[in-house]
Design goal:
Metal Binding Protein, Guanine Nucleotide Exchange Factor, Chain A
């Protein structure tokens, strides 16, 4: 194994080892068993999802992939507004719940009411809790128990799974 291959492997698993979001990448279109039997309001074939999503969005939302840490422009988003699922535009997080976690992914203390679903994810190194859009089932990220008050939760989301819409000027965060 050469140095480049070794460093690539270490960088690929480091976010998981350090408690960040997952570095997993499943095949596009695959579903975990907990969600396989679920029926969602918004359903499309993989071909139709590919027509409405960018390749990066498809890899995350439909393939349960994860973007590289620090690459999402949403990390630097500090305006007031709402974060929607990039697959179906369901509002899932408020900017009021966003915080800087230092992980390299947009992080939130809580989702909006009736916005997400969760399922067990046993794909890497044990059990994690996956977060998905309750309307289309798109993979958003994972939730961890190391967040700040008031919830103690860190909803570690993929920027590629979200679209940000700012509120009108003068709104409070």
């Amino acid at each position: 194994m050469d140095r480049r291959t070794f460093l690539g492997a270490v960088i690929g698993i480091a976010p998981v080892a350090l408690g960040g979001c997952s570095a997993e990448a499943q095949q596009p279109g695959s579903r975990r068993t907990a969600k396989a039997a679920a029926t969602f309001e918004v359903t499309r074939s993989d071909a139709d999802w590919r027509k409405v999503l960018t390749p990066a969005q498809f890899a995350v939302l439909r393939g349960h992939g994860t973007e590289r840490p620090g690459t999402s422009p949403l990390n630097a988003e500090h305006r007031q507004g709402t974060y929607q699922c990039a697959g179906c535009n369901l509002p899932v997080y408020s900017s009021r719940a966003k915080f800087e976690s230092g992980t390299g992914w947009p992080s939130f203390t809580a989702p909006l009411e009736n916005a997400i679903g969760t399922s067990e994810d046993r794909s890497l190194f044990g059990l994690r809790i996956e977060v998905h859009c309750r309307r289309c089932g798109g993979h958003l990220g994972h939730v961890f128990d190391d967040g700040p008050r008031p919830t103690g939760k860190r909803y570690c989301m993929n920027g590629d799974a979200l679209v940000f819409t700012p509120t009108s000027q003068g709104a409070s965060r």
